[in-house]
Each structure stands twice: as structure tokens, then as C-alpha cells.
Amino acid sequence: MNTVKVAQRTVGLPNGMSSCECIRLMAREAAELWYPGLGEELAAAALEREQAEPTCLGHGLAVPHARVTGLPGAAVYVAKGDGLSWSAEAVDCVALLCVPAELPELHLQLLSRVVRWRMKGGELCF
């Protein structure tokens, strides 16, 4: 697998955030970490995907994803919080996937690893 950057938000997400608010915040923070100047593009891509089909996968996990053409690399940005509202489901963990659009297979690999990590517990590593 290609090298993937992984980080966890150091403080929890504010209680009561909507999925849109959460995606915008996490996209902006991921851009600050790895993709300077691309925060709006990451947010727009993830929000477009979210509108097509909500990314709440159950078990308190939401995995919004931004597939962006020309993105210089892949990253997973994880945040936890209580009382997050995601398409009428309660969520306590959000993992934002940022993947170059040119690598759809990498997107699926990352999604699979995040789901396995959540189901089994333990370290999230790539």
C-alpha cells in the first residue's frame, strides 16, 4: 500500500455537531496538516459524497471521504466525540479519508482498514 498519513485529532469534536459541520472542520484541519490551501476542496468533495449517500457505517462510525484529483497523497484523519448527529444516527468516531481520485483501489483499502480497526479495536496503522 502507498504511504498513508494518519493522525488523530487531539481534542474531541464538539458535542452536537452535524455531519456537515464535522466534515468542514475536519477537512480544514486535515488541509492544515497535509494539504495547505486545499481545505475547501477537501470539504466540498466529502460533502458532495455525503449528500449522495451518508457515510455512517454503524457501530458509531462515520467515514466521510474526499477523493480529489491531483491530491499529493492519501491521509486518514480520525476524531472522536459524543453526541454527533450523522444522518439520524449517533456517532462517536469519524475518520475522514483523503485520497487522490486517481487511486480508487487505495480508497477501498483504506475504508476496509478503518472498518476493521473499529470492529476489532486496537491500533489504526497502515
From the structure above, extract its key features.
126 residues, Mannitol-specific EII, Chain A, globular
Outline of the structure:
This protein is α/β, with parallel strands linked by helices and 126 residues long. The protein has three helices and six strands; from the N terminus they run E-H-H-E-E-E-E-E-H.
3D structure, described in words:
A hairpin with a 2-residue loop joins β5 and β6 (89-100). Strands 1, 2, 3, 4, 5 and 6 form a six-stranded mixed sheet that branches. The chain has helices at residues 19-34, 39-52, 104-120; strands spanning 4-8, 56-58, 61-62, 65-68, 74-86, 89-100. With 126 residues, it is an alpha/beta fold. The chain contains three helices and six strands; from the N terminus they run βααβββββα. The N and C termini lie close together (8 Å). The relative contact order is 0.23. The protein has one domain (4-120): Mannitol-specific EII, Chain A. Helix content is 37%, strand content 31%.
Q: Outline, from the CA principal axes?
A: globular
- Name the CATH architecture: 3-Layer(aba) Sandwich
CATH superfamily heading: Mannitol-specific EII, Chain A
Unreliably modeled segments: none
Structural class: alpha/beta
Q: Average pLDDT, to the nearest integer?
A: 89
Mind describing the biggest β-sheet? Answer: 6 strands, mixed
Q: What is the CATH T-level topology?
A: Mannitol-specific EII, Chain A
Strand content: 25-35%
**Number of beta strands:** 6
**Fraction of helical residues:** 25-40%
